[in-house]
Design a protein that fits this description.
The protein is an all-alpha fold. The protein has 18 helices and 2 strands. It has a two-stranded antiparallel ribbon with strand order 1-2. The longest helix has 34 residues, at 348-381.
Length: 439
């Protein structure tokens, strides 16, 4: 019997993607007593996927782009951390570090192997659309339920409920509000560009327009400042790009812009849910700024952004080599000396420098820069409107980590979205190139 490795890879990828999305359903509601064990399932599934893929394709292609070389340098620097251990951390700490930094990197190689046509990408978007409808509705329902309701159960009983005024900050099927925000920041811009894709193909956009409104409502329900700010930037970039780069859709972008502004204003006026969520978000913003005005550091938007952008603030403490990979991970503090706890770190950039040192920080910065430039170049070089519309939301996902505005190292879902987005950009570029050759 000969195994069809290609078919196994494709099925493993779909199962892994579905599990990653639905993990919270099992951890919070179906099997809460196994929440810790279920957390590891995604690593087992993706690990099996990688193993099968590298059995199928045991040799790596020669690097053609600078970002590929920098990824290799980054991996080698992480491996070097095995012998860089000034805190005398046990091997388990290093293993956690490798998982945080490296585990989802192979995703960007496997995605182009699976997605070889626009039709496959459309099928994925349509599947996600149906799932998102249920996810968004659940988020709205949770918003009005009391904290002790079954649907508001958390994966960790020690977690505190996040609230805005008297309402729960919903996390829908996800285990944390942050994970839900990451999902929304990917999905809402994707649905927006896909609306224009459907307009170009004379398909109905009503269902996706509804999903966009529900997705934006859920963003305000989570009441997180940065994701809402970033989604606003993404939407502006998408509209400007289409307006100036895709002449065929210029009239559509103007009409939809006016219709969207009118619809949102009307919904705020007549829908108590929209009013309460938007007002709750504004209240939370004002409250955090008020606390910041009282002299409490780290609350104002300016403080948070500054902390994220100033990644080298602990360069002197970390040195060129850092304290070792995994040493700032929230689950490893118990194994370390007090030297780490003397430094008040929080944001991803600060933690990367502390773990990998100044050299590691420079490598990470250069790697993310060239990955973003690659995504941007694919967008600029694209001669197909279809390619550009599908690539755009994923290219935007490559921009945010460059400025360390989200944590793709210490948040597994952000980590996955980053490498998945790079894979989709490559896949679409390959599809366009293949189409041009065939034509």
């Amino acid at each position: 019997m000969v195994l069809n490795l290609n078919k196994i890879i494709n099925r493993l990828l779909i199962v892994s993607l579905i599990w990653l999305l639905l993990e919270g359903v099992f951890r919070k509601w179906l099997l809460p007593s196994l929440t810790v064990q279920l957390f590891a399932v995604k690593y087992a599934l993706f690990g099996l996927l990688y193993f099968t893929y590298f059995l199928y394709k045991p040799t790596l292609k020669k690097a053609k782009h600078p970002f590929q070389l920098l990824i290799l340098v980054f991996i080698l620097w992480c491996l070097f951390q095995l012998v860089n251990n000034p805190l005398k951390a046990p091997l388990l700490v290093t293993v956690f570090g490798y998982i945080n930094y490296l585990f989802f990197i192979p995703v960007f190689m496997i995605i182009p192997h699976y997605f070889t046509s626009f039709n496959q990408i459309e099928k994925l978007i349509n599947l996600v659309a149906w799932l998102s409808l249920a996810i968004f509705i659940l988020g709205i329902v949770q918003y009005y339920l009391p904290p002790d309701h079954f649907l508001n159960k958390l994966a960790n009983d020690e977690q505190g409920f996040a609230k805005v005024t008297t309402f729960i900050r919903s996390n829908s099927i996800f285990t944390f509000v942050k994970n839900y925000n990451s999902y929304l920041l990917l999905i809402v811009p994707l649905f927006i560009t896909y609306v224009f894709y459907r307009i170009r193909h004379n398909k109905s956009i009503l269902g996706y327009a509804l999903l966009i409104l529900l997705g934006m409502l859920n963003m305000f329900i989570t009441a997180s400042r940065l994701p809402i700010f970033l989604s606003g930037i993404f939407i502006v970039i998408i509209f400007i790009y289409i307006l100036f780069q895709i002449s065929q859709l210029r009239k559509s972008i103007i009409i939809i812009s006016l219709f969207s502004l009118t619809s949102i204003t009307l919904l705020y006026s007549i829908s108590s849910t929209f009013q309460q969520s938007v007002d709750g978000f504004i209240y939370r913003v004002n409250m955090t700024e008020h606390i910041a005005d009282q002299g409490v550091e780290g609350y104002s938007a300016e403080d948070r952004i500054t902390d994220r952008l100033t990644i080298f603030k602990f360069s002197e403490e970390a040195g060129w080599l850092g304290f070792g990979i995994g040493t700032t991970y929230q689950g490893t503090g118990f194994f370390l000396s007090s030297k780490r706890s003397d430094i008040k770190f929080e944001e991803e950039g600060e933690r990367i420098i502390l773990e990998l040192g100044v050299i590691g920080g420079i490598i990470v910065l250069l790697m993310r820069l060239f990955i973003f430039l690659y995504g941007l170049s694919c967008l600029i070089k694209s001669k197909s409107v279809n390619s550009a519309l599908l690539q755009l939301p994923f290219a935007l996902q490559l921009m945010v980590p460059l400025f360390f505005l989200n944590s793709i190292t210490f948040s597994y879902i952000d980590n996955f979205i980053y490498w998945f987005s790079l894979g989709i950009v490559i896949a679409i570029s390959n599809i366009e190139e293949k189409t041009q050759i065939e034509s």
